[in-house]
Amino acid sequence: MRVLIAGIDGYLGWTLAQYLVDTGHEVAGIDNYSRRSWVAEMDSWSAIPIAPMSERLQGFHERYREKLTFYEGDLQDYSLVEKVFNEFEPNAVVHLGECPSAPYSMIDRDHAVYVQTNNINSTFNLIFAIKDHSPETHLVKLGTMGEYGTPNTDIPEGFFDVEYRGRRDRFPYPRQAPSWYHWSKVHGSNNIMFACKTLGISATDIMQGVVFGTQIEQMGDDPRLSTRLDFDQAFGTAINRFACQAVIEHPLTPYGKGSQQRGFIPLRESMKCLKLAIENPAAMGEYRVFNQFAEVHSIDGLARTVQHVASGLGLDVEVKNLENPRMELEEHYYNPDHSKLRELGYTPTQSVEDEVRIMLSDLIPQRERIEEKKGSLLPDVQWGGYRRRSGYLGDIEAQAAEGQS
Ligand code: NAD
Q: Are 156 and 219 contacting, i.e. CB atoms less than 8 angstroms apart?
C-alpha cells in the first residue's frame, strides 16, 4: 500500500516509516520540523541524537533500498497537502503531525491557541484532501487515551449503549480531557466522526496509550535511523523520562502520589498496531475507534520498575514524588476496553521490564547529553495557568517534601 505519514520526522513517524517500508509498503511523509523547535524552546534536546532530514533520508535509502519521498512543509498549508495527495496518491494517511504535549499546551494562552489551531487545522486539511482528491484513502488518526480522562466506569472503544428515560441509543463515550492538548484531540475526533458521516470518508481514530522505547529492530545501529527520545517536562513522557533520569542517577519523579493509572505500549508494539489498522481499513463512511495500549500501570509502579532494572545495571536511583503540577485524579478507577486490535491479531509480547532494559542500555551512552539538559526534567508548567521557574536539584527536595505531605 502507499502510506502517507503526516509528521514523519517525529518519534512515531520516523519509526513507522521504517517499519512499513520493511514490511513491504511504500511511504511518503510530510513534516515542518516543529517538534525539533518545541523541544529547543523547552531548553532541551533529544537524548538520542537525531540526524538532519537530509542524512536521515540517505541512511534510509542505504538501509532499505527504497525511496522515501519527503515533503517539507506545514500541514496547515492546504495547497501543500493537496500537492502531496495529487503526487503520491496514498491508499492510507496516518496522521501523527500534531503537537502532542499537554504541558506545552498549558503554558499560557498563546501555547493553548497554537496547539489547538495546529492540531485541528492539520486534521481538517487531511479530511478535505481525502474528500477533494482521494475519497477512498483511509484516514488513520492518532488520538490519545487521555481523551477519555479517568471516568468512574469502564471505558469502551469509542461508543456505548445508553438507556435514558426508557429509550435506548448508541452514543460516543463522553470525553473528559485533562488539558488543552487533549481537548484538541477530542475536537479532532468529533470532526472526523462528522466527516465520516457527511463526506463518507473512512477513518480509524486510535486512542493510544503512552508510548515508550528507544528503538525497533529495523533501525539497526545506523545513528541516522535512530528516532528521537525526549526527557524534558513537556515532551518527555513517563517511562521515557524515568529511563533518562535513571541513567544519570537522578531521582525518578512521579507527580503527586503516583497512583494515577494509564495505558502504556512499547514503541515496537505501537508499530504493529498501526500496521494492523492500516492493512485492515475501515469501510467507506465508517468511523471506528481503537483503544491502543498493551497494559495498564500506575505511574509509581513504573518508576519502581525502572528503578529495579536500573539497579540491575549498577545504577543507584531513588524515587521522589513531586508536587503534582497537573489537575488530575490521583486515586481513581481505570478499566478501558482494548479488544479490537487483538481481534485483528495484536498480541502484546514485550514486558515493560524487558523494554526498559533495552532503553537503559541505549541511553547509557547518552549520559552527557541528558546531564547537560537535566534542568529541563523538572516541571514548572502548572495547570493553574502560570509558569514557575525554579532552580534545580535543591528544588527537588522541597518539591518531594510537598508531594509527600
Ligand atoms: P512527535 O511530536 O514526535 O511527532 C509529530 C510530528 O509532527 C513532529 O515531527 C512534528 O514536527 C510534526 N508536525 C506537527 N505539526 C505539524 C504541522 N503543522 N505540519 C507538519 N508537521 C507537523 O509526536 P509523537 O510522539 O510521534 O506522536 C505522534 C502522534 O501520536 C501525536 O498526534 C500524538 O498526540 C499521538 N500520541 C503519541 C503518544 C506518545 O506517547 N508518543 C501517545 C498517544 C498519542
A: no
